[in-house]
Amino acid sequence: MLGIFNSIFLISGKHAPFTGVPITVMTGFAVVSTALIILGIFLSQKRRAWYQHSKLTQGEIVEIGKRYDRSDRRGQHPMFFPIVSFIVNDRQFKIEADKGMSILSQIGQKMHVRYNPENPYESALGESNVPGIKPSLFFALGSGLLAASILLMF
Fold first, then answer.
1. Rounded distance, CA 79 to CA 121, Å?
2. Cβ neighbours around 20 below 10 Å, total
3. Helix 136-153 vs helix 23-53: angle between axes, to the nearest 10 degrees?
4. 13-29 per-position pLDDT tens digit
5. Beta strands per DSSP E along the chain
6. Which of 9, 26, 98, 147 has the most CB atoms within 10 Å of its CB?
7. CA distances, 48 to each of 31, 40, 52, 78, 148 (Å)
8. H helices within 13-135, ranges in order?
9. What gap in Å lies between CA 126 and CA 42, rounded to an integer?
10. Residue 42, pLDDT above cutoff 80
11. What is the mean pLDDT of the chain?
12. Cβ-based neighbours of 138, under 8 Å, separated by 6 or more
Protein backbone atom coordinates (compact mmCIF):
# COMPACT_ATOMS: atom_id res chain seq x y z
CA MET A 1 0.00 0.00 0.00
CA LEU A 2 2.86 2.34 0.86
CA GLY A 3 4.33 1.63 -2.57
CA ILE A 4 1.16 2.93 -4.25
CA PHE A 5 1.30 6.21 -2.32
CA ASN A 6 4.99 6.61 -3.11
CA SER A 7 4.21 6.07 -6.81
CA ILE A 8 1.48 8.71 -6.72
CA PHE A 9 3.75 11.25 -5.03
CA LEU A 10 6.57 10.41 -7.44
CA ILE A 11 4.31 10.97 -10.47
CA SER A 12 2.75 14.18 -9.16
CA GLY A 13 6.09 15.78 -8.28
CA LYS A 14 7.06 17.98 -5.38
CA HIS A 15 4.39 20.05 -3.72
CA ALA A 16 4.61 23.33 -1.91
CA PRO A 17 2.58 23.80 1.26
CA PHE A 18 -1.06 24.81 0.62
CA THR A 19 -1.32 28.59 0.70
CA GLY A 20 -5.04 28.97 0.10
CA VAL A 21 -7.30 29.42 -2.89
CA PRO A 22 -5.72 31.46 -5.70
CA ILE A 23 -6.92 35.06 -5.91
CA THR A 24 -7.87 34.60 -9.57
CA VAL A 25 -10.36 31.86 -8.63
CA MET A 26 -11.90 34.01 -5.92
CA THR A 27 -12.06 36.97 -8.29
CA GLY A 28 -13.85 34.74 -10.79
CA PHE A 29 -16.35 33.72 -8.09
CA ALA A 30 -16.88 37.38 -7.20
CA VAL A 31 -17.54 38.24 -10.87
CA VAL A 32 -20.01 35.36 -11.29
CA SER A 33 -21.79 36.23 -8.04
CA THR A 34 -22.05 39.89 -9.06
CA ALA A 35 -23.49 38.80 -12.41
CA LEU A 36 -26.09 36.65 -10.61
CA ILE A 37 -27.09 39.57 -8.39
CA ILE A 38 -27.37 41.89 -11.41
CA LEU A 39 -29.49 39.26 -13.19
CA GLY A 40 -31.71 39.10 -10.10
CA ILE A 41 -32.14 42.89 -10.18
CA PHE A 42 -32.97 42.78 -13.90
CA LEU A 43 -35.54 40.01 -13.42
CA SER A 44 -37.04 41.83 -10.45
CA GLN A 45 -37.53 45.01 -12.51
CA LYS A 46 -38.95 42.99 -15.40
CA ARG A 47 -41.44 41.26 -13.08
CA ARG A 48 -42.44 44.58 -11.53
CA ALA A 49 -43.05 46.09 -15.00
CA TRP A 50 -45.07 43.02 -16.05
CA TYR A 51 -47.17 43.24 -12.88
CA GLN A 52 -47.91 46.95 -13.41
CA HIS A 53 -48.83 46.36 -17.06
CA SER A 54 -50.91 43.23 -16.43
CA LYS A 55 -54.64 43.02 -15.84
CA LEU A 56 -56.68 41.01 -13.38
CA THR A 57 -59.76 38.97 -14.29
CA GLN A 58 -61.90 36.18 -12.89
CA GLY A 59 -61.43 32.67 -14.17
CA GLU A 60 -63.28 29.47 -13.49
CA ILE A 61 -61.88 26.04 -12.67
CA VAL A 62 -62.87 23.78 -15.56
CA GLU A 63 -60.72 20.75 -14.82
CA ILE A 64 -58.50 19.43 -12.06
CA GLY A 65 -55.31 17.50 -12.73
CA LYS A 66 -54.14 14.98 -10.17
CA ARG A 67 -50.50 13.99 -9.73
CA TYR A 68 -48.44 12.16 -7.15
CA ASP A 69 -45.06 13.03 -5.71
CA ARG A 70 -42.27 10.58 -6.55
CA SER A 71 -41.78 9.82 -2.87
CA ASP A 72 -45.49 8.93 -2.48
CA ARG A 73 -45.11 5.29 -3.52
CA ARG A 74 -48.53 4.23 -2.24
CA GLY A 75 -50.41 7.11 -3.88
CA GLN A 76 -51.99 8.28 -0.65
CA HIS A 77 -51.23 12.01 -0.95
CA PRO A 78 -52.18 13.36 -4.37
CA MET A 79 -51.52 16.94 -5.43
CA PHE A 80 -54.26 18.74 -7.32
CA PHE A 81 -53.53 21.16 -10.16
CA PRO A 82 -56.59 23.18 -11.18
CA ILE A 83 -56.97 24.21 -14.81
CA VAL A 84 -58.60 27.62 -14.98
CA SER A 85 -60.38 29.05 -18.00
CA PHE A 86 -60.64 32.82 -18.47
CA ILE A 87 -61.92 35.05 -21.26
CA VAL A 88 -60.11 38.02 -22.81
CA ASN A 89 -61.59 39.90 -25.80
CA ASP A 90 -64.14 37.12 -26.41
CA ARG A 91 -61.38 34.48 -26.60
CA GLN A 92 -61.05 31.68 -24.09
CA PHE A 93 -57.67 30.87 -22.54
CA LYS A 94 -56.67 28.14 -20.09
CA ILE A 95 -53.92 28.03 -17.52
CA GLU A 96 -52.85 25.23 -15.21
CA ALA A 97 -51.57 25.93 -11.71
CA ASP A 98 -47.81 25.57 -11.48
CA LYS A 99 -48.01 24.63 -7.79
CA GLY A 100 -50.09 21.75 -6.59
CA MET A 101 -52.62 22.02 -3.80
CA SER A 102 -53.22 19.31 -1.24
CA ILE A 103 -56.96 20.07 -1.04
CA LEU A 104 -59.33 19.41 -3.89
CA SER A 105 -60.85 22.51 -5.47
CA GLN A 106 -64.34 22.40 -6.93
CA ILE A 107 -64.99 22.62 -10.65
CA GLY A 108 -66.78 25.90 -11.28
CA GLN A 109 -64.97 27.67 -8.42
CA LYS A 110 -63.82 31.20 -9.30
CA MET A 111 -60.15 32.16 -9.18
CA HIS A 112 -58.23 35.36 -9.95
CA VAL A 113 -56.04 35.31 -13.05
CA ARG A 114 -53.43 37.95 -13.83
CA TYR A 115 -52.56 38.19 -17.54
CA ASN A 116 -50.64 40.27 -20.06
CA PRO A 117 -53.23 42.16 -22.17
CA GLU A 118 -50.96 41.97 -25.24
CA ASN A 119 -50.42 38.21 -24.86
CA PRO A 120 -53.02 36.53 -22.61
CA TYR A 121 -51.14 33.22 -22.87
CA GLU A 122 -48.66 34.90 -20.53
CA SER A 123 -50.70 34.56 -17.34
CA ALA A 124 -50.55 33.48 -13.71
CA LEU A 125 -53.10 32.29 -11.18
CA GLY A 126 -53.71 34.57 -8.20
CA GLU A 127 -53.87 38.29 -7.62
CA SER A 128 -50.17 38.94 -7.07
CA ASN A 129 -48.44 36.08 -8.93
CA VAL A 130 -46.21 36.74 -11.92
CA PRO A 131 -45.10 34.05 -14.41
CA GLY A 132 -41.43 33.23 -14.77
CA ILE A 133 -38.40 32.60 -12.60
CA LYS A 134 -38.36 34.25 -9.20
CA PRO A 135 -35.42 36.67 -8.84
CA SER A 136 -34.91 35.72 -5.19
CA LEU A 137 -33.17 32.56 -6.43
CA PHE A 138 -30.49 34.64 -8.17
CA PHE A 139 -30.15 36.99 -5.19
CA ALA A 140 -29.61 34.04 -2.85
CA LEU A 141 -27.11 32.27 -5.13
CA GLY A 142 -25.22 35.48 -5.89
CA SER A 143 -25.10 36.58 -2.26
CA GLY A 144 -23.95 33.18 -1.02
CA LEU A 145 -21.26 32.89 -3.67
CA LEU A 146 -20.09 36.47 -3.04
CA ALA A 147 -19.90 35.88 0.73
CA ALA A 148 -17.96 32.64 0.19
CA SER A 149 -15.51 34.29 -2.19
CA ILE A 150 -14.89 37.21 0.18
CA LEU A 151 -14.39 34.89 3.17
CA LEU A 152 -12.02 32.63 1.26
CA MET A 153 -9.94 35.53 -0.05
CA PHE A 154 -8.70 36.44 3.39
1. 24
2. 10
3. 160
4. 566 665 666 777 778 88
5. 55-68, 78-88, 91-96, 110-116, 119-125
6. 26
7. 26, 12, 6, 33, 30
8. 23-53
9. 23
10. yes
11. 81
12. 36, 37, 39, 40, 43
